[in-house]
Amino acid sequence: MIPIQSKLPGVGTTIFSVMSKLAEEYNAINLSQGFPDYECDPKLISLITDSMKMGYNQYAPMPGLPALRTILAEKVSTLYQASYDPDTEITITAGGTQAIFTALACCINPGDEVIIFEPAYDSYAPAIKLLGGLVKPVELSPPDYEIDWEMIKKLLTVNTKMIILNNPQNPTGCIWSEKDMQALIRLIKDTDILILSDEVYEHITFDEQDHKSVALYPELKERSFIVASFGKLLHATGWKLGYCMAPDYLMKEFRKVHQFNVFSVNTPMQVGIANYLKDPDTYTGLSAFFQQKRDLFRDMMGKTKFKLLPCKGSYFQCVTYSHLDDLKDTDMAVKLIKTCGVASIPVSAFYTKNTDHHVLRFCFAKKQETLEKAVERLMKL
């Protein structure tokens, strides 16, 4: 073996792969990884198939098809009254995670500090470290995972380059309030701090609560990369398509990296999605669709011995078992697979220091019969 110096020496296989493999091994119901077990709209499949038959099978333009970028510009204008130039400020990517990595890669240099809120999506910290940046994690605690803005203020230094926010938040299901957004605006005023806003669950908020995109706030929009996902939007996570929006001066740098990473992404899917999104009902009804699943899952889980934490957005429900057992959450997650036949994600995996609050995350983007069967098994705990 030829010795190499690992750039991520402390990183192993992601918890999602580990739990999904265990679920397969024990024939467990997989509520761990965040993907639906139902099909996306047949109309969308038909539109993409038609685009293949019509010959849209070669490279797309590097930033993405103009028709799709135009639809997205119209969408964000309608939803958030925000203007993005489809030619210079929107880029189609190979999923949300690629967009996140590219946004980081184009502006994070060795020694730059990036503030993240934990529990955090597990790609943030490794990507920052890979680029030589320094992760400044802010640990939030259940049940509400509220942000202490005075503490955040104390973390700022001359080296603070970026703040990453995830709204609605994975894994907690929390959403940012107007109060939080105003606090962020005050925090970054008169600084050169950039914002990376991971908004892949933007259309999944509950109880008539509006999504607070950074695009709504000119003070934030002017310094922000916004990342979104067609996988979450269209119930098709395996397609790995997403997009990034940013002001022209930031998008120029984003595209410099993007062109030498993936260059461009799946052409026929871009054509089909552009035609599909012409109907706003394809995304405006998502909150109601997922609220029905959330309400059903919470109602059933309320009959188990777990205690439910708030779920205001995303398609994840967190529960605590601290009143039942002292097991580490990683051990409890394995126990549920082996004894109940249900896979979850231990939330400590979303903390840099693996902080364990005895909380597990379940994905409820599943068929009703899947959720019913899973809860029936969990009742045995």
UniProtKB/TrEMBL annotation:
Cofactor(s) recorded in Swiss-Prot or TrEMBL: pyridoxal 5'-phosphate
Keywords of this entry: Aminotransferase, Pyridoxal phosphate, Transferase
Pfam families in the record: Aminotran_1_2
Molecular function per GO: kynurenine-oxoglutarate transaminase activity; pyridoxal phosphate binding
The protein, known as: 2-keto-4-methylthiobutyrate aminotransferase
Transmembrane segments: none
Native source organism of the sequence: Pedobacter metabolipauper
GO CC terms in record: cytoplasm
NCBIfam families: PRK09082.1, PRK12414.1
Lineage: Bacteria, Pseudomonadati, Bacteroidota, Sphingobacteriia, Sphingobacteriales
All copies of domain Aminotransferase class I/classII large, residue ranges: 28-378
Family, similarity comment: Belongs to the class-I pyridoxal-phosphate-dependent aminotransferase family.
Record-linked InterPro entries: Aminotransferase_I/II_large (IPR004839), Kynurenine-oxoglutarate_AT (IPR051326), PyrdxlP-dep_Trfase (IPR015424), PyrdxlP-dep_Trfase_major (IPR015421), PyrdxlP-dep_Trfase_small (IPR015422)
Coiled-coil ranges per UniProt: none
